[in-house]
Amino acid sequence: MGGEALPLLRAHGEVVSLTRDELDLTDGAAIRAAVRRLKPRWIVNAAAYTVVDKAESDSVTAYAINGDAPGVLGEEAARIGSAVIHFSTDYVFSGEGSRPWREDDATGPLGVYGASKLAGERALANSGAAHFVFRTSWVFGARGENFLRRILQLAQERDELKIVDDQVGSPTWSRTLARLAEHTIRRAEDRAEALNSTLLDAVRPMDGVYHACSTGFTTWFGFASEFLQTAQKALPGTMLARVVPIPSSAYPTAAVRPKNSRLNCEKLERTLEFTMPSWQAATNEVMEELLATMCLEFGSGS
Length: 302
Description:
By secondary structure, the protein is an alpha/beta fold. The protein is 44% helix and 13% strand.
C-alpha cells in the first residue's frame, strides 16, 4: 500500500518513505530516532509483519513489528504533536457467525498475526497520539506478490485450481486504502485550517478505529473465479485453469484463518465521508493494470 500512497501524499508536501534497510521496525530506539530526526506532521504506517503462518513460529518478530512499533510511533507522535494513520486487519476477530463485525465488537484473534496486530492497535491508542486505525481485509493490487498475481500465474500453468470456499470477506484494493489515507489527511488539514486549530484538536473528535474494506462479500473461491472470468474476457482464446471450491479443512495451514471476515464500514462513510468501491469494480481495474505491468503474452503465440 505504501507505494500506492506516495504520489497521492506528495500533494500535501514533502514525503519521506523509509525502506526496511533504512528503518528496522523491530528496533524501538531506531524508530524514536527516526521520528525525532524527521519531525513529521503525519506518520502513515503501512508496514507490517504479514506472513500469517510464519508468525506462529516467529512470534517475537511479529509482535515487535505489529505490536510494539505502532506504540513507539504513537508515543513519538504525541511528543511532537503529529498524527498517525495505521492499518490493521480483520484477523483481530474470531471469525464466528456471519454478521459483519463492527468497530466496537469484542475481538478474539485466532493466531499470532491477529493477536500482534490487536496489540499494535492498543499500543497506539494508549500512546496518547491522535490517530486513525483502519482495519481492512484481503488486500490485493497489481504490484508486488499477492493472491491475484499468483492465481493468474497458476491459471496459465495448471488445468485446475482448488480454492477455499468457506472463508468470507471483502477483497480490498491497496490503491483504495492509499486514497483513504490521503482523504483522511486532507479532511483533517481542512478542518484544522477552518477552525484555526492545531492538528491534534482537529483530529481528536474523529480519531479512533474504523473498518475499511470493499463493499460486498465473497469467498476466496468467488474472488478467484471473478478475477479469472474477467481475465478470460480480456484475453479471448486463452486457456485458463478451471477453479474448484474446497473447504478450509482440505488446505490445512499453520495459522487458523477466520471464517467470517465481513466488516461493517458504516462508520467510515458516516464520519469520514469516504465510500469504498465494490470488490468487483476494484478487481476489474486491477485486471487491466496486471495485464500491462506483467506484460503477459496471452494468445500471442510466443
